[in-house]
C-alpha cells in the first residue's frame, strides 16, 4: 500500500496502527512470517464500531506474541544452575522453542537450587533459576520470556471483529 498522508498506513508497528485507528476502522496486519512483539489494547469508542460497521483487525494469518527472546549475554552461571534477572518483575512464563517449560516450585526458607530438575525452572526474588538439560547452556537454546502483562485487552469496546490472527 502507498500512504496518502501521515495519518494513514502502512505503518511499521501495531501500536502505531492502533493509535491512528478510529471508530469503525479496519487495521490490516501484513503476515511477514515473523511475529509482532506487542499486545493489542483496544479502548472505548475509539476502537469500537457500529453493528453494521465494526472496528476490525484483519490478521492475514499473522501472529502477535508477547514472548521476548532472552539474549545469551543475559544469563549468569551459578554452578549447575543458570540465573536470569528479567527487567519486568512479577509472574513469569518461560518458553523454549515456543513451548512453555515446566516450572518447579521451590518452597520454604531453604531455597535449594539443586532441587530444580533438568529442563525446568523456578523463580524467586525477581530472578529466574534454570537448570539446562542435556541440550546445553541457555545460550544454545531458543529461550524466551513473556514480556507483557496481557496479549489482548478489550476495555469498554463494542462491535469489534478480530479475524485470522494468532495470539
Explain the overall architecture.
The protein has one helix and 13 strands; from the N terminus they run αβββββββββββββ. It starts with 13 loop residues before the first helix and ends with a strand. It is mainly beta and 167 residues long. The chain is elongated, with a radius of gyration of 20 Å. Strand 5 and strand 6 form a beta hairpin. The longest helix is centred in the N-terminal third of the chain and has 7 residues. The strands form four sheets. It has a four-stranded antiparallel sheet with strand order 4-11-7-8, with no helix packed on it.
Radius of gyration: 20 Å
Number of helices: 1
Question: Shape, please?
Answer: elongated
Mean pLDDT figure: 88
Derived structural class: mainly beta
Topology of this protein?
Layout: H1 14-20, E1 26-28, E2 40-43, E3 55-63, E4 67-69, E5 75-78, E6 81-84, E7 94-96, E8 99-100, E9 121-124, E10 127-130, E11 143-146, E12 152-155, E13 160-166
Q: What's the short story on this structure?
A:
The chain is mainly β and 167 residues long. It has one helix at 14-20, and strands spanning 26-28, 40-43, 55-63, 67-69, 75-78, 81-84, 94-96, 99-100, 121-124, 127-130, 143-146, 152-155, 160-166.
Amino acid at each position: 500500500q502507498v500512504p496518502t498522508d501521515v495519518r494513514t498506513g502502512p505503518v511499521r508497528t501495531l501500536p502505531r496502527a492502533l493509535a491512528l485507528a478510529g471508530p469503525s476502522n479496519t487495521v490490516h496486519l501484513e503476515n511477514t512470517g515473523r511475529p509482532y512483539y506487542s499486545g493489542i489494547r483496544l479502548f472505548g469508542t475509539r476502537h469500537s464500531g457500529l453493528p453494521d460497521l465494526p472496528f476490525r483487525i484483519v490478521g492475514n494469518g499473522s501472529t502477535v506474541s508477547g514472548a521476548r527472546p532472552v539474549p545469551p549475554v543475559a544469563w549468569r552461571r551459578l554452578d549447575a544452575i543458570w540465573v536470569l534477572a528479567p527487567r519486568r518483575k512479577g509472574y513469569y512464563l518461560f518458553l523454549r522453542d515456543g513451548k512453555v517449560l515446566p516450572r518447579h516450585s521451590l518452597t520454604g526458607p531453604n531455597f535449594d537450587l539443586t532441587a530444580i530438575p533438568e529442563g525446568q525452572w523456578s523463580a524467586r526474588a525477581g530472578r529466574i533459576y534454570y537448570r539446562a538439560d542435556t541440550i546445553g547452556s541457555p545460550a544454545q537454546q531458543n529461550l524466551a520470556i513473556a514480556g507483557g502483562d496481557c496479549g489482548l485487552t478489550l476495555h469498554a469496546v463494542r462491535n469489534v471483529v478480530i479475524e485470522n490472527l494468532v495470539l
